[in-house]
Amino acid sequence: MTIKKKVGQLVEKYGTNDPFKIAEAMGIDIVYENLGKSLGYFSSIYRTTIIHINESLSYKKQLYTIAHELGHVVLHPDENTAFLKGNTYCLTDKKEVEANTFAIELLLSNTENENVSFDQAIEEYGMPEQLLVKFFYS
Fold it and tell me: What does the record list as coiled-coil region(s) (predicted)?
């Protein structure tokens, strides 16, 4: 199943594309912490999933980061990419691209955000330019 289709099913199931509301409906706690340069990550222990967000992020970057971490929860539920990056030689680039694609689809594929420009998506939300090119121009 494509990422776009998974996002569509999630939005239909929860009646929103708001990552805060989706996380709440899925029973995922959001915790704000001082994460230094890290934007966020998710952890799952004993069937409790938590999205950790850097408390210094702007609201729009929080939206994008939560949407990105929801992408990991939905697409890679059994993989701890933060652990893999820090403790192994396992490549996580593909998983990061998938989570970024998920976040872009979730946040920009609706009428509420249709006025978000290419530049706003990069500057205000922190979305990666190379993936936005595909979204905006394909």
Answer: none
DSSP 113: T
Q: Digits of tens for pLDDT over the chain (138 positions)?
A: 798 899 999 999 999 999 999 999 999 999 999 988 889 888 888 888 999 999 999 999 999 999 999 999 999 877 655 544 443 344 458 888 899 899 998 988 765 656 778 888 888 888 888 887 877 776
Interacting residues of 106 by C-beta distance below 8 A, sequence separation 6+? 7, 10, 11, 17, 19, 22, 67, 70, 71
Q: Does domain 3-137 have CATH number 1.10.10.2910?
A: yes
Question: Is 17 in contact with 110 (CB distance < 8 Å)?
Answer: yes
Contact 50, 29 (CB under 8 A): yes
- Tokens at 9, concatenated: 């099913």
Calculate ∠ Cα 62-47-19, nearest 5°: 25
Q: How many CA atoms lie within 13 A of 115 on its CB side?
A: 1
Per-residue burial over 100-128, b = 16 or more CB atoms within 10 Å of its CB, e = otherwise: bbbbbbbbbeeeeeeebeeeebeebbbbb
Instruction: Count the residues in the chain.
Output: 138
